[in-house]
Design a protein that fits this description.
16 helices; 292 residues
Length: 292
């Protein structure tokens, strides 16, 4: 009654939620998310993030906005911020398997393997051969040092070669073969990964380490320099370049590189091991080639 009196007096009627309104809302959101992806593809994730944060004032419960915010935060190196955003998206849209995969990946990044496995199992209980679910399970086993189990899981989705993350899958399989001291098999997968994605820095890095395993130091150094050219702040690449420079007798350059790597990631056991050997070894006979 009060509502009708107000409408009669003011002449203002509330906007009703209609299919037309929903249609324009969907179009608006689709266009905005397209702009976000355009920013991200141009290495402008900071601007994409600001755009999404403004969007939340109008749509504070939009799960896709939180998912996109998480992806931008990953681009910007904020894994904890990304995890919070993905968990919010998962709370708002608990049936979205891709969001669960993002949560699992973030937990793996911060070393929370058990929490990651919980999300992975949720994904695979719904879709047995979900690409990212299986890939993350393989990654879980690889991090845990169970390379045979990792290969078993990863090879079940090798036929899904149309997935956007297929090059990353091939690279991960290559890493597992490296860990099993089979650099020839690793080369096969890493080369295939690079043929699909030539600037895949992880595949390039592990290809360089493969050369190192085979004691092909010139090739190892050449490949690792390609990684550093693409990503000058890749800590492990800086560390292994230091190792290869040291093995070639270029100790001053090696020291500069390993110190830069240590500054980027002082907690890395691999970097600490290489650093210790460079500073303590008087010859070029070091053990770091056996790290992988």
């Amino acid at each position: 009654m009060i509502k009708n009196k107000f409408e009669k007096k003011s002449g203002i009627k509330p906007v009703k939620e209609t299919s037309i309104n929903k249609k324009f809302e969907k179009k608006f959101l689709d266009n905005l998310f397209a702009r976000v992806e355009k920013y991200r593809s141009s290495d402008k994730s900071f601007y994409a993030l600001r755009l999404l944060e403004r969007l939340l004032f109008k749509f504070p419960l939009n799960p896709k906005a939180y998912e996109k915010i998480g992806l931008c935060e990953i681009d910007l190196g904020d894994s904890l911020g990304a995890l919070r955003s993905f968990l919010t998206a998962n709370f708002l849209d608990p049936k979205n398997l891709d969001v669960k995969a993002h949560c699992a990946a973030c937990f793996l990044m911060i070393g929370a393997k058990d929490k990651s496995l919980k999300f992975i199992n949720e994904i695979l209980s719904v879709e047995k051969h979900h690409f990212m679910g299986k890939m993350l399970l393989g990654r879980y086993y690889e991090i845990s040092g169970n390379y045979q189990k990792a290969l078993k899981e990863l090879q079940t989705i090798e036929n899904q070669n149309d997935h956007a993350n297929f090059p990353q899958l091939l690279g991960l399989i290559g890493v597992c073969w490296m860990a099993q001291q089979n650099p020839q098999k690793a080369f096969e997968y890493l080369e295939n990964a690079l043929s699909l994605d030539p600037e895949n820095v992880d595949a390039l890095f592990h290809k360089a380490v493969c050369h190192g395993q085979l004691n092909e130091i010139d090739d190892a150094l050449s490949e690792i320099e390609k990684v550093i050219k693409i990503d000058p702040n890749y800590p492990e690449a800086l560390a292994f370049s230091a190792l290869y420079l040291f093995l070639k007798g270029q100790k001053n350059q090696a020291v500069a590189r390993i110190e830069k790597a240590f500054e980027k990631d002082p907690q890395s056991e691999t970097i600490k091991t290489i650093r210790e050997e460079i500073f303590s070894t008087k010859t070029t006979q070091v053990k770091s080639l056996e790290i992988f």
